[in-house]
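Async update (no meeting this week)

Hi team, since we skipped the sync, here's where things stand on the single-chain job. The sequence we agreed to prioritize is pasted below, unchanged from the tracker. I ran it this morning and attached the output directly underneath so nobody has to dig for it. Comments welcome in thread, and please keep replies under the output.
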Amino acid sequence: MRIAGVIPARWGSTRFPGKSLAILAGKSVIQRVYERVSAAQRLDMVVVATDDERIRKAVELFGGKFVMTRGDHPSGTDRVAEAVSGMDADIVINIQGDEPFIEPAVIDELASAMVTEPEWDMGTAAVPIDSQEELLDPSVVKVVWGQDHRAIYFSRSVIPFDRDREYDLKKSVYWRHVGIYAYRTAFLQKIVATPQCLAERVEKLEQLRALHIGARMKIIETVHVGVGIDTPADLEKAETLMKSGGWL
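Output:
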């Protein structure tokens, strides 16, 4: 099976326009992400999917591969689907373009699961939530799963809800979703051909569309979360983390 790693990157961002080209420890964010993704062992190809000439030029300059896509996609998933429509790829790994600390081992684990366990339409990852602040933060997406680590639901709310409001984090019941997805190519095309469902529109979480149409989605457990670059403040945090962690 051929596996493609695709990094969707657009210029427009409500909180941080142009963040893909923001400089993080001497390199652009998109170059940091590309280099981390390229370190994964199970990918046959890595490309940036963008609609912006500035991002395309930056990717060319550091020697990366890219695919130009339309500018009117409502989500990164739609951009990834267009990017792979002409590729020879059986499995697609969608890696967020603002995750410079993405762990290559997580990419490889998702890829391996999709290759060796054909019952899954999709796969994604989760990390334990270790603070009540994070648990109650609506920007932190929570996930619960059932037998065989099959995803049941994702929410910005606390799930599962603790009736007694104890929120005991030691019980390992609260998990944060990590925004990386593995798809079988045919199922990815099915997702983007399906209109948004009500839950997706309410929660603003596109993975709920996949569950709505019956996706068998595997959750892998990991301890790697890093720092996503959503704001200039996140960029500062990422810079500090990179320096303190010896990444330079």
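Quick observations from my side:
The chain has a mean pLDDT of 93.
Residues 102 and 154 are 21 Å apart (CA to CA).
Reply here if anything looks off.
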